[in-house]
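[Solved] Which block belongs to which protein?

Original post:
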Amino acid sequence: MNNGGKYKLVVAMLILFCIGFITSYDVGAVTEQTYITVKVNDKCIKMDNWPYLRGDRTFVSVRFIAEALGAQVGWVDEKKMVVVDDGYNYIELFIGSNEYYVNAEKQTMDVAPEINNGRTMVPLRFVSENLRCSVDWNEMTYTVLINKDGLEIPAECVYNRSYTDEDLLWLSRIVTVEARGATIEGKLAVANVVLNRVKSPAFPNTVYDVIFQRGQFPPAHKSGFKELVPPKDCIIAAKMALEGINNIGTCLYFNNRPFTSRSDKFYKKIDGEYFYN
């Protein structure tokens, strides 16, 4: 092959290489994040470190929970000790130790307190046993429910969440039927299309009304949809979207086949679904 032929071959390969970049969309990796809400007397509690699951235990920030329950919290650095005082119990916790003290009496817990993002995290069971309250778990909404009679929660402890449990349930249901078999990325994308429509003046302004808008989400009008119990991964994806994780920008539409009429609005393809602005 002469030099001219080699030059043409190189150019052709470069063109194909560039086309590959143009037509292939890297949707990026989405990491599943389980957002656990804590409610005290049915009010969401503000925290700067989310609770998390480890095995069959839920860990919560002792400071934010204790303060919402009306207790004072202190830190003794040289002892790596947290002090909680609710006027009835005086509690001393030690990082990495299963032993703690309540009114100077030694107690033990099955899992030691730990530091996570600068916050002392304790098993949820510790809260119910030592801060004179009842604790329950709502698996459907991934919510810790704490109740304490006669408590007035300080206003600065309340998290004014932008969505309701009903929003989460309906969004989880539509994700279940529209993204069945999809990865967490695909489920998250479908959830965000619904939320983008809620924000758009071209669509209804609630999750429920967007889902049931005539001609938009046919599975929502099928028998059994309103009673559907969403699986965990769909609840997690819906809650991620409601908490602000967005992997499809401002997209308002998706379909399992390309929309020729909206080709100029194409954003990306995820799990076989085409997403459009």
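(Second protein starts here: sequence line, then its structure tokens.)
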Amino acid sequence: MTDLKKIKNKKRTNWIICIVIGLLTILACYLPEYNVSVHGAKPRVAVEIISVDNSQLAPIGLSYTGDQGATVKILEGKHKGKVIEAHNMMLAALEKDKIFEVGDKAICVLNNYDGELRGQLIDHDRRMPQGLLFALFGVLLIVFGGVSGFGAIISLAASIVIIWKIFIPLILQGHDPILMSLILVVFLTVVIDILVAGISKISLVAIIGSLLGTFLTAILAIIFGEMFIMDGGTIPYVVPLLSQSALKLNIKDLFYSMVFIANSGALMDLSMDVAASCYEVKQHAPHVTHKQLLRSGMAVGRKVVGTMTTTLMLAYSGSYLSMLLFFVGQGTPVIDIINYKFVSAEILRTLVGSFGLVSVAPFTAVVAAFVLTKNTKEVAPVNLEDIEVEELLETLEK
């Protein structure tokens, strides 16, 4: 079989894998929702704000408290075209409250009070710009990456569906968060790497290297989490989550799980970079030895690790920039800041994640050197003084 045919067959196989996993992802979307509440079962529709009544709102600093009344027109569903009264409750919480103006599109919960239809405004309808942004991102991926880009889109969709439909319900049912998270990361790593690189030595090397880094990250998260005296209290929505689960959820283990899940994507990224680089070296230098390929993989890893570690630190510090501004503005001593529980949690996430990044590069390089040069025979060195120029050219061509 010619190299061209091999390439075509490989692309065809990759397309088939992407389509199959894409279809399985679509089927997974039809799994039943977990514990749909009475409130959650009420119909939601898109509405357009026709008029607003702000007379019941009282300003408190930059926010408001009270009830914003509105007249809205239903844009979809069996009540499409109807004009009803709706309400928007304000709680003086900037992160949750929203103010509607005439012409805005919103998501509204429909309630039936003695035959009269009324609405409760949830938030602005952002589905259109969200869909547009996702579509532009998908087009960019496909144009630039071809089948790999299409695989990246499928892997993103599959990850969202698996987490929402399978992983979260299992955690809420009381299963061990650490075990479930490890299974999730292993499964997603295998699926995503195969979607991106196909069934190949590249994906095999990337999967092994990434998982080794993930397991090390999980162990470090648990060990240093205990040393940092982390109790999981820094998790967002921890109080209502505990109330909802009747205190059955182990929030400490959930915190540890969140640490290595959050870093698993970066580990996959770096392991794929090193694996693909080693594969390209092997393709262009078929007789490269185990030590030479290992050295090349290490060199690539060193270059990437520096920027990836900084990227991870900037990602976390950027997310908590407002918190840092507050502390600096208040003149809070550094010794106080670094010992606050929520700051220590971010330090743990950043350093443990960085440790995983640094370790995954040599892990992947070692695996690549073993897998990619397994059947390579070392070529004897050529002594330039013992052969003529023509013989030297023939040797180089071979």
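Accepted answer:
You had them paired correctly. Confirming on the second one: Confidence is low (pLDDT under 50) at residues 379-393.
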